[in-house]
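Quick log. Single chain, no ligands specified.
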Amino acid sequence: MPKTRQEKEVIVAELSEKLSRMKSAVFTSVSGYTMEDANDLREKGRAQGVELLIAKKTLLVRALEKSGFSVGKEALDGSILTTIGFEDEVGAAKLMAEYAKDREGITLAGGILEGEFVGHDAIMQLSTLPSREELLAKLVGSINAPVSGFVNALAGNLRNIVYVLNAVKESKA
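-> predicted structure:
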């Protein structure tokens, strides 16, 4: 049963609202996408702060235009799965690149990053970047490295003093 104009306007408004809050979006052309795949992917997405949506391309393009993005309908080929990342820029790209890696019929069509439509290659590059948490962990490790090196140097001096004192004790005994 076809959707009424009012139902379509509600869908466009909801999509537009989500697109205005996003950090990045990935558009994936899917064929042979089953409910089991959808449930598995949605569960993985929730854990990463990513939401998956399926909407007609015309409604998606209208929502994108309403949100201020210019993506032509011709850039989105086939059945489109929209993955929206709310927490970080790389979450959606990582999720979909990993999902598409071992499946035929699923290709990354492009996405939106920093308010601009980017193609397949940019999304693949984005998916190889470390996540925000990984970058923060590396930063903390880099900041901590000089301090831990200094502590090890001081501990080494104390250790050497203990060795010398033990050697003196053994030589007198």
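Residues 5-129 form a domain with the Alpha-Beta Plaits fold (CATH 3.30.70.1730).
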